[in-house]
Amino acid sequence: MLLGYARAGTGAHTLESQIDALTDAGVVPARIYSDAFAAITRMPLRPGFTALLDYARPGDITVVVGIDRLGRTAPEVMATARDLADRQIGLRSLREGLDTDDPAGAMIVGVLASLAELDEELGPARRVTDASRRTRAASVGRPRALGDEQIAIAERMRADGEPVPAIAAALGVSRATLYRALAERRSVT
């Protein structure tokens, strides 16, 4: 038996448009379960999906307009897909053309579920890594040849009338490096 599930969202994901698509796909309107969320909560209550699970029997197929209608996050979508598979309830997504009755579709859902599990396991470690990557992002590339103190010295020497080649030689850098450092300093201030 085909069972439909619609979850309200924004834009094109209105309940009405999803219900129309599900009935066009052959789901009997009386067997379409839906959830509408008035506000975003940490743990969404899904009475419509719970009712679908209560009614469904092994061998039934849950039809959704898009795989994203199974949840708001990738782990939530994959947990829902895993729950359906554990109950031997098929899954068909109209937009993606996924069908767990098809071996390729079942494999894709299995791979996505595995990736979601991996994402859950690596989540805390990945957040720490991403944070350290962002702090290093400010200093990407080769270290600067001149520090802020050396650039300040070069600016004072230039203000005193020293020629750029003499300043560069005194600081141990090329003229091009000195010109670039002075130009960067002027563009920042």
TrEMBL record:
UniProt GO molecular function: DNA binding; DNA strand exchange activity
Stretches of the chain forming a coiled coil according to its record: none
Similarity annotation: Belongs to the site-specific recombinase resolvase family.
Superkingdom in the source lineage: Bacteria
GO biological process: DNA integration
InterPro entries: Homeodomain-like_sf, Recombinase_CS, Resolv_N, Resolvase-like_N_sf, Resolvase_HTH_dom, SSR_resolvase
Descriptive protein name: Helix-turn-helix domain-containing protein
Record keyword DNA-binding present: yes
Domain Resolvase/invertase-type recombinase catalytic span(s) in chain numbering: 1-139
Species annotation: Gordonia mangrovi
Keyword terms, alphabetized: DNA integration, DNA recombination, DNA-binding
Membrane spanning residue stretches: none
